[in-house]
């Protein structure tokens, strides 16, 4: 028998049980007294593996602003796996998780966050004018809980077509691959491409695809029609299928132009547009966090759920990326302004 403090007897078995309960409760009590680390929600349309390089840039950007995942900040990732209808439910999950801020990549994810997370600051990354899209009220004072970056890739569609024409001066017929599920992005780019094509005397034929099988079918049709080149509109879904797109263009032996550097790195002929990885990572050159998605997210974490009415940021520059295959010197001249030395 063991005596308690009140001199009442206690059985050894009961004592061990009480002692074990106290030992188990101690760590829980200690953890309860520790401040909880903030949680950042990341909402994306694509698959995590195709976003891996950009995700590392986002994490690096957070680290540069003082937040290290697993140490003083946690990140809850939600991926729609190219199924845009899943985004509202995933955004609602982040709301229930009570994240401090949501980083939304792409227009579909941004709209889902705006609809489902109206009380949580959201930093978006889109390729079109966010005012025209309806995400914010103005660029200088977005209003509400939304702020972010327009990388203007959609507005560069006409310039991209011009560069493709320079690359293939005799081109007369261009096949355009569009994703109907990304209606806003597709409409903006289609309008730009059609206007630019008319001014250059080009004929354009649109093909739609919203799945891997539909991409295969579109390229089968393109192979039969034999246009002079393919122009792939910029959407998160197509970027997630960039390897398939590049391989199909090579299989059908047709030149193709894309809007993101990722395609050229995957073996595509050429791309022209902003560097998304840089915009996910970078901070403002003067030290303010509004320059990039990671910086904007860390700023909202520090603001402790204040409104996200920060100025909208735009891209620093666009760039051309091309692979010098059989077209050799023409690509080198297009990119650098001077012939390539061999």
CATH superfamily of the largest domain: Response regulator
N-C termini distance: 93 Å
Number of helices: 14
Mean pLDDT: 76
Shape: elongated
Poorly predicted spans: 1-34, 283-291, 311-319, 324-342
CATH topology of the largest domain: Rossmann fold
CATH architecture of the largest domain: 3-Layer(aba) Sandwich
* SSE ordering: EEHEHEHEHEHEHEHEHEHHEHEHHEH
Sheet with most strands: 6 strands, mixed
The number of distinct β-strands equals 13
Percent helix = 40-55%
Strand order, largest beta sheet:
9-8-10-11-12-13
**Text of the CATH class of the largest domain:** Alpha Beta
User: How many structurally independent domains?
Assistant: 2
> Which secondary-structure class do the elements indicate?
alpha/beta
Sheet-strand content, in percent, reads: 15-25%
Rg, alpha carbons: 26 Å
Descriptive report:
There is one protein chain. By secondary structure, the chain is α/β, with parallel strands linked by helices. It has helices spanning 12-33, 52-64, 87-96, 107-116, 130-133, 157-167, 183-200, 212-225, 236-240, 242-251, 261-265, 276-281, 293-303, 328-336; strands at residues 2-3, 9-10, 39-44, 74-79, 101-105, 122-126, 146-150, 173-178, 203-208, 229-232, 255-258, 270-273, 319-322. It is built from 14 helices and 13 strands. Helix 2 links the parallel strand 3 (39-44) and strand 4. It is elongated. It starts with a strand and ends in a 6-residue tail after the last helix. Residues 1-34, 283-291, 311-319 and 324-342 have low confidence and may be disordered.
